[in-house]
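Provenance and format

Records in this collection were gathered into a single text stream. Each protein contributes a sequence line and a token line. The two records reproduced below are adjacent in the stream.
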Amino acid sequence: MIYLDYAASHPMTPEALAAYAQAAALPGNPASVHGAGQAAREKLEEGRARLALALGTDPRTLTINSGGTEGDNHVLLGVARAWEAQQGRPGHLVTTLTEHSAVLGPAQWLETQGWEVTFLAPDQQGGYSPEQLAGALRDDTALVSIHHANNEIGTVQDTPKLAQVAATHGVPYHTDAVQAPGVLQVDLAAWGVTFATFSAHKWGGPRGVGVLYVRRGTELPPVTLGGGQEGGLRPGTQNTAGVYAAGLALAQAEANREATFTHLGKLNRQFCQLIADIPGLRFNQPGAGSPRIVNVTLPGADGEALLMNLDMLGISASAGSACAAGTMQPSHVLTAIGLSEPDARASLRFSFGAATTPEEIVAATQALRQAAEWSRS
């Protein structure tokens, strides 16, 4: 099996697995004051410190949770709760049509609660401009939420410029940056964002471990209650082993990031060159996007059949976001950038990792040709 679905989940690195096992062997609860608890606390905070160093921030700004979905929900719903407590009424939110469902879901729910939501439309490359954002802001805008790197087509936004526009208007800025670490440089201090969300299984850490960045001095109420862990922002016993492994994996990914970026760029170009002559094939990603992702459309083919055929041929790919898999709906990202619903259904995402080899790329392109022929027939 050739695994080309790194945007959905990056396999745990051997080092992260070993670190997880080491920390999981500790019996203590990190909130306990006895020696066993404090030994667990040391591992937890060591992992948090490594995460903070790699992300360009202070460890005190990072709240540990279960992943990007929880973090995105916490920001949108928490900011809404704080706004309503202060203003006594619903406010206005700005986000985009190409966000992950973890942002679109709470944004759409807030609409049912009386909030007004502006969904910015992307250009054909999936991008958003500072001028476009500035034109959408209002006096009652409580939050802007725009992803850093798109999980389906790889478009990378100019987060510092967009965050500056929001800051100029006094509006908090959130970015879902799940797809960035290990591939793209992350510097939270330089970005100037108010909130950012991350997920460890995108960089070789364990599944079920997420990181929420909240800039110091920012009000964000908890959305769950019952304990004082994580400064009261996210109660519940922390996943000591998961955080320790996530921190080690991110430190490793950051140390190798420039080499990984170069390697992924070569794989991306190789893949695109080898499939460019498939009849009717179209590329759906921008030229300067994340090198991890290649998204293609094969008009006349069925996306589900393509995936099944590829799987039979030993290739793991996807039709888009793993969180939307099985919905049988066309990709909202692809329709937002102008594809018809039939073409969006006939699209595939391939995503690469540091362990992907050129030989695997050759095999995958050969399999794609065969899968396309079978599907179209």
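Adjacent record:
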Amino acid sequence: MLPNSPINILMVEDNKEEQFLLTELLNDSGILIKNIFTCARIQNAVDAINESIDIILLDLSLPDSMGIRTYKTLRNYSGDIPVVILSGISDKQLALESIQLGAQDYLIKGDFDEKLLAKTILYSIERKKTASTLMESEERYRYLFNNNPASILIWDPANFNIIEVNDACCKEYQYSNKTFLTKSIVDLQTPEDIKQLLPMNQQAKIDFLLHKNSRRQQVNQSGEIFFMDIASHNIEFKGSSLILSLGINVTENVLLENAITDAKIKNQKEITEAVFEAQEKEKQAIGRELHDNVNQLLSSARLYIGLARGKENLPNQFLDQSEGLVTAAIAEIRSLSHSLIPPTLGISELKDALEYIADDLTATSAIKVHTDIASFKENASAEELKLSIYRIVQEQLNNIRKYSKASEVWLKVANKKEGVLLKIKDNGIGFDTTLKSKGVGLLNIKARAALFNGEMKIISFPGKGCELIVNFMEQ
């Protein structure tokens, strides 16, 4: 296949007859020729070289230069232009040396015709283009390899020896490139992670398409341990089947993940402790209520009943007093039951139960409660969620009664697109949310919310009241 466009040829030949014969062969070769430039000296050839020259035909015996030195001189200026040597000397050693130095071909004058000359010129131009493309590709690879921000190393799975590393890898592991190439991939691993290399070694031998991602602990020159996300796969490199591993330092991410996990564990522990403490306090409160109040009322009632049996003239008086005490005990038990079980919840509606405890707070503490719960859709929420909402409202209203010194409270329960919104706001003395609370009330609320995928938020400042917001997300 001949070139599609005319080419410029530089002929470096001092013999006029050789110039004439070579020109005739070129004209008969079928090659499209734009210009043939001729030079008789090496210095003239150097001056004539420019970007328009497509190929140089060089005689090694010139008036100002002889032998291989002629090619070496020209090579310093020819750049990417292919050079074909035309010599009158059949010297295999000279021909081999010329080719090794970069000449495209070595032809003996008189031993070639126009067809061989055409093929040599064409192949020389194409080989040079291919070599230039390959060199450019290799330079691009080398640039990308060395300037890649990720750590890259190439190693042999047969013996774990490191074959090549990039600059980022040297910086990450704190080894110089020269030192790195004396190391084994095993030298970079912790004892735990060395075990992962053995299966990879065996897999690489049977699976050329090996591709493995893993997070491993690595050790740098200073003995410091850090974490790397490493992707490894087979490559063909310098005639061998090797493994290229690309790593990214994720130590900060791992430490952050561990901190988050620790915080979650600590938070869950605090919630669990708060729930247990709240349950224990509830038990103690129930016990005190039964012992100090209900038990005393019933004991007194039993005493009056005993007196009624022994006093025939005053039985009704003692029985009336016993009835009053029993009635008071019943009222106490009823009040205690309301604090434990939401009245009629599950039989009627959450809205009724919330209205009941709101009214109870107003009646017993003179705190005015404004409710916005009429639009809450009972059928859209599970009974367990409604019970959790009831307990949170009960807990927070109790906190307000004890600590807030508030005169008004705003209670809102509403459906939203993603779930249910609960807000309880008061105009009390508020508190500093940055200070750790000694009570368990808020932790108890947080624990109850978490059971139903709820997120709790507290907005409060000293003297500015307090607002509790709980978002229950659909599960």
